[in-house]
Automatic annotation (TrEMBL):
<dbReference type="InterPro" id="IPR023267">
    <property type="entry name" value="RCMT"/>
</dbReference>
<dbReference type="InterPro" id="IPR029063">
    <property type="entry name" value="SAM-dependent_MTases_sf"/>
</dbReference>
<keyword id="KW-0949">S-adenosyl-L-methionine</keyword>
<feature type="binding site">
    <location>
        <position position="243"/>
    </location>
    <ligand>
        <name>S-adenosyl-L-methionine</name>
    </ligand>
</feature>
<feature type="active site" description="Nucleophile">
    <location>
        <position position="337"/>
    </location>
</feature>
<keyword id="KW-0694">RNA-binding</keyword>
<dbReference type="Pfam" id="PF01189">
    <property type="entry name" value="Methyltr_RsmB-F"/>
</dbReference>
<dbReference type="GO" id="GO:0008173">
    <property type="term" value="F:RNA methyltransferase activity"/>
</dbReference>
<dbReference type="GO" id="GO:0003723">
    <property type="term" value="F:RNA binding"/>
</dbReference>
<keyword id="KW-0489">Methyltransferase</keyword>
<dbReference type="InterPro" id="IPR049560">
    <property type="entry name" value="MeTrfase_RsmB-F_NOP2_cat"/>
</dbReference>
<dbReference type="GO" id="GO:0006355">
    <property type="term" value="P:regulation of DNA-templated transcription"/>
</dbReference>
<dbReference type="GO" id="GO:0001510">
    <property type="term" value="P:RNA methylation"/>
</dbReference>
<feature type="domain" description="SAM-dependent MTase RsmB/NOP-type">
    <location>
        <begin position="119"/>
        <end position="395"/>
    </location>
</feature>
<protein>
    <submittedName>
        <fullName>MFS transporter</fullName>
    </submittedName>
</protein>
<keyword id="KW-0808">Transferase</keyword>
<comment type="similarity">
    <text>Belongs to the class I-like SAM-binding methyltransferase superfamily. RsmB/NOP family.</text>
</comment>
Length: 399
């Protein structure tokens, strides 16, 4: 059955996310099938992302008013979180409470009174910082220890602007924080038909760090659908993009064609060595994705404390392949869209200990940095995703 209103859709999506679904996919899929006006689409998006970005804090605010929240029907728990989110966002009681009470009546009439009472009684409570930021304690404490603060994580709870990389000039686009990156202020559209590709500037910058030049061969390792490959190809490089996932690569091939760019896609497990080399190599490794909590808010509740270390083991294996594929005198850029110590500096330290033939190069990062020295950690401010970059030069080969 089609949801009749943004509120009903928000409840349904929150339930599906609770069962393991991915917010962005679910919401895009649902909105693509509903011919709703932009206002309703924006409202549903505000509700779903608002709740998921502040889930832990909302539950903390609701807690004093509920005896056994875990015993409530899941729909009613979602309705309470949605009503609490609108309260926190400043919506007046008269416009806020009764619509949620009406939603509650549809799923559990006997609990409509409870929803009404709880949503009217909400008040602010002093919360520990990790709760206020809706982060799991293990990650919040790890960030406090590593960066000396965790206030930057507030950036994950702001609405996400949509940035695009422009491969053609398009009138009226507002410039983003780095060249070729722009803010897209319209609704969803066929971006590649316009010569545009949705991409966070922090992701684009990883590709810029290779300083591509026309005619030069570049290996794009873990290239996925090829967002970074597009930029490198647009600068005239001959890009060979490797990934394990042929479905992503097929999607990339299709987009590259629409953008008028040439990228060669090859499918391979990169834990195994490559049979070719290049002067420029990019490894945009798979990671825990903690830098992308703004657009993937559910991720933070799904990660386990051992995940960064587990990912770092894989990243080191992939980096071995990338190192061997880098020609002497060449540049190897390692990037991950995550902010953990293990997957950033941890990987860098372990790799450099085994590879004296690689030396780190300074990075002139145009974004606010959380930490720099051995690579740079980008702060998730102003709509940027959190990223870690390391740029290495291969000075002399052991073999
Ligand atoms: C961060 S994503 C890459 C995003 C891509 N570079 C872009 O800019 O669009 C990481 C990629 O690593 C790939 N991957 C994971 N394990 C791999 C492996 N063992 N060998 C090759 N690719 C792998 C995944 O399929 C995924 O596409």
């Amino acid at each position: 059955m089609r949801p009749g209103s943004p509120r009903a859709l928000a409840v349904r999506i929150l339930l599906e996310v609770e069962r393991g679904g991915r917010t962005q996919l679910l919401l895009d899929w649902a909105l693509d099938r509903l011919s709703w006006p932009e206002r309703d689409r924006a409202y549903a998006t505000h509700l779903v992302y608002g709740v998921l970005r502040r889930l832990r804090y909302l539950d903390f605010l609701l807690e004093p008013h509920l005896r056994k929240p875990e015993r409530l029907p899941p729909q009613v728990r979602c309705i309470l979180r949605l009503g609490a989110w609108e309260w926190l966002a400043g919506k007046a009681d008269h416009a806020r409470v009764s619509p949620w009470v009406e939603e509650a009546k549809k799923v559990s009439p006997r609990l409509a009174g409870l929803v009404n009472a709880v949503l009217r009684r909400l008040s602010l409570r002093e919360a520990p910082e990790c709760v206020r930021l809706s982060l799991p304690d293990w990650l919040c404490q790890a960030w406090q220890g590593f960066f000396g603060q965790v206030a930057f994580a507030e950036g994950f709870n702001e609405p996400a602007p949509l940035f695009v990389t422009a491969y053609r000039s398009v009138e009226g686009l507002k410039p983003g924080p780095i060249p070729d990156s722009y803010l897209w202020e319209g609704g969803k559209t066929d971006f590649s038909a316009l010569g545009l590709q949705p991409q966070n500037p922090a992701s684009l910058f990883a590709a810029r760090l290779l300083s591509p030049v026309p005619g030069e061969k570049v290996l794009d390792l873990c290239g996925g659908a090829g967002l970074k490959a597009f930029y490198l190809a647009a600068k005239g490089a001959e890009v060979v993009s490797y990934d394990l996932n042929p479905r992503r690569q097929e999607a990339g091939e299709k987009t590259a064609r629409k953008l008028g760019l040439r990228v060669i896609y090859l499918t391979q497990d990169l834990r195994e060595p490559l049979s070719e080399k290049a002067k420029k190599v990019l490894l945009d490794a798979p990671c825990t994705g903690t830098g992308t909590f703004r657009s993937h808010p559910e991720l933070r509740y799904r990660l386990a404390p051992e995940d960064p270390r587990r990912m770092a083991e894989l990243q080191l294996k992939l980096l071995e392949t990338a190192a061997r594929a880098t020609e002497e005198g060449g540049v190897l850029v390692y990037s991950v869209c995550t902010l953990t110590e293990e997957e950033g500096e941890g990987v860098a330290r372990a790799f450099l200990a085994r590879h004296p033939e690689f030396v780190p190069e300074p990075i002139a990062c145009p974004f606010p940095a959380l930490r720099s020295g051995l690579g740079v950690y980008v702060a998730p401010e102003g709509g940027l995703d959190g990223f870690y970059y390391l740029r290495l030069r291969k000075v002399n080969s052991r073999s």
